[in-house]
Amino acid sequence: MADDIGEDLIDMIAENDLTGIRLWLAEHPPYEIADELERMDARYMIVPFRLLDKDRELEVFEELDPVHQHEILVGLRDSAFHELLEEMDPDDRARLIGEAPAKIATRALAGLSPAERKMTAALLGYPEESVGRYMTPETVILHRDLTVGRALEVVRAKGADAETIYILPVVDDGRRLAGIVQLSDLIVSDDESLLKDIVDIFVPRVSATDPAEGAARLMQEANLVAMPVVDSEERFVGLLTFDDALEVIEAADSEDIARQSAASPVAGHYVSVTVPRLARSRAVWLLLLIVASTLTVSVLSHFEATLEEVTALALFIPMLTGTGGNVGSQSATAIVRALAVGEVRVRDLPGVAWKECRVGFLLGCALALIAMTVGWMVVPGGVAVAVALSVIAVCTWAAVIGSTMPLLAGRSGVDPAVVSAPLVTTLVDATGLLIYFTMARVILGI
Q1: CA-closest candidate to residue 39, choices 276, 278, 272
Q2: SS3 breakdown of the chain: % helix, strand, coil, rounded to 5?
Q3: 176 forms bridges with which residues in the sheet?
Q4: CA dihedral 256, 261, 262, 266 (to 10 degrees)
C-alpha cells in the first residue's frame, strides 16, 4: 500500500498535477511525507515541498536527513531559504549548518537574525558529535529561591519560546545547576513552597563537550525526558531532549551495523543513494579484507607438504574456517553491542576474555561431537580425532579473539565497531588453519 502511495505521488509530480499533490500532502502526516521525499530524486523533491503549508513545511523539513535538507535548501529562493532556517530549532539548525557545504553554510548564517545567529554560532563552537551540538539552549530557567507559584508564572510567560517545559532546570545565583524540577511537580505542589525544597539534585548531568552518544545512552538508561547540560564550571547551558537523544542513538547504531558488516556508513535514504556511492562505501573494507585473507593463503602454502601427505585433511578446512569465523563473529558482535549500551567497559577485558574463552570451549565441545561423528564416517580415525580437537581449540580461540579485539580497539581510541565481524572472521580463518595443521601434525605424527 505504501509503495502504491509513493508511486502515485511521483506520477503526480511527473504530470505536474499540483492539485493532486496538495491533496496527497493534506492527507499524510509530516513523517510520512518526509519518508516519501527522501525516496525521490532531488529534482522531484522540491515540488511537493514547496506546496506544503507554511506550518507543515518546517515540520517536514526537520524530519528529513541533513543530506536531503541540503538538497531542499539548494532549490529554495533566498526569502524561503532564510525564513525556513530562522524558524528551525537552534540545535537542528546548528547540525544542519555544521554538515552543509561551505556555500550553503555561509548563506545560511548570513541570513539569520542576530539573536538566532548568536545561538547557532554558540552551538557550532562545540566539537562535532558532542552534546553541545545536540542540546537546545531554548529553555525556561528557574532560580532555586523562587516559590512554586512564581515559578509557574515564569513558565507561562516564557514557555512558548522553549523547546520543552516538562523538565525545568533550577539554578543558583551564578547560574550553576542546582538540579531540575518537573512541571508535574510544580502543578501538584503548594504555591508557597520553595523550589529549593522540591528540586531533584541527583539528576544526571553531562558536560557540553562530552560525546553525544554516551549522553544519549545515559538518558536511555535513566529513563529521562530531558537531561541538563553544563559547562566546565557547572553552569547550565542547555537541555538534551529525548528526540535528539533518539537520533543520536539511531545514527550510532546505524554506523555500528555498517562497520560490523565491513562497510562505511552512508548518509541518506537507501533508496535514493546512488550505486557508485554504495559501492565506494563497501570497496575500501573489502580491499582490506582481501589483503588480510592472504594470511590464509600463506598458511596453506606453508603446510602444503602436510596436505600432500594426508589429503583427507583438506576435506575439513571449510568446516573449520566457517565454524571458527562464525564463533568469532558472534563474540565480536555481542561485545560491540555490550560496549555500546554500557554493559561492558574496556577495563573489563580480562573478565570478558575469560568468560568468552569458556563459552567458546563449551561450544567447541558440542560441535566437536558432530565433527567426530562425521569424521569417523569418511576418514581414518586419527584424522577424525585431529578434526574434533581442532574444532574445540579453534572455537575457544575464536571466542577470545572476537571478544578482545573490540575491547583493545576501544582502549586504543578506535571505534570498536571498526573491528568488524568480517575482519575477525578473516583473522580467525588464518589462525584456525594454523591450529588445525599443527594439531594434525602432532596427532598423526607427520
Answers
A1: 272
A2: 70, 10, 20
A3: 235
A4: -60
Residues 6 or more apart whose CB falls under 8 angstroms from that of 73 comprise 81, 84, 85, 100, 104, 108
For residue 183, the model assigns a pLDDT of 93
Read off the DSSP letter of residue 194: B
Instruction: Please say whether the beta carbons of 70 and 101 come within 8 A.
Output: yes
> What DSSP state is assigned to residue 423?
H
Q: How far does the chain reach from its first CA to its final CA, in angstroms?
A: 66
CA–CA gap between residue 348 and residue 338 (Å, rounded)? 11
Cα–Cα distance for residue pair 413/410, rounded to 1 Å: 5
Task: Return the H-helix or E-strand segment holding 366.
Answer: helix 349-378
Q: Is 197 helix (H, G, I), strand (E, B) or coil?
A: helix
Residue 255 CA to residue 340 CA, distance in Å, equals: 11
Separation of alpha carbons 252 and 265, rounded Å: 10
Alpha carbon 266 to its chain's center: 12
Q: Give CB contacts under 8 A, 24+ apart, made by 322-325.
A: 323/367, 323/391, 323/394, 323/395, 324/394, 324/395, 324/397, 324/398, 324/428, 324/429, 324/432, 325/398, 325/424, 325/425, 325/426, 325/428, 325/429, 325/432
Q: How many residues are there in the chain?
A: 446
Residues 6+ apart with CB under 8 A from 107: 81
Sign of the C-alpha dihedral computed for residues 125, 131, 137 and 142 taken in this order: negative
Residues 82-114 as b/e (b if ≥16 CB within 10 A, e otherwise) read: bebbbebbbbbbbbbbbbbeeebbebbbebbee
pTM above 0.70, yes or no: no
Do the beta carbons of residue 215 and residue 157 sit within 8 Å?
no
Closest CA to 41 of 274, 276, 275, 280: 274
Query: 311 is written with which cell numbers?
Result: 589429503
Supply the pLDDT for residue 429.
Answer: 84
CB 210 within 8 A of CB 131: yes
Intervals of the chain under pLDDT 70: 1-7, 258-273, 278, 281-282, 284-286, 288-290, 292-293, 295-296, 300, 307-309, 417-421
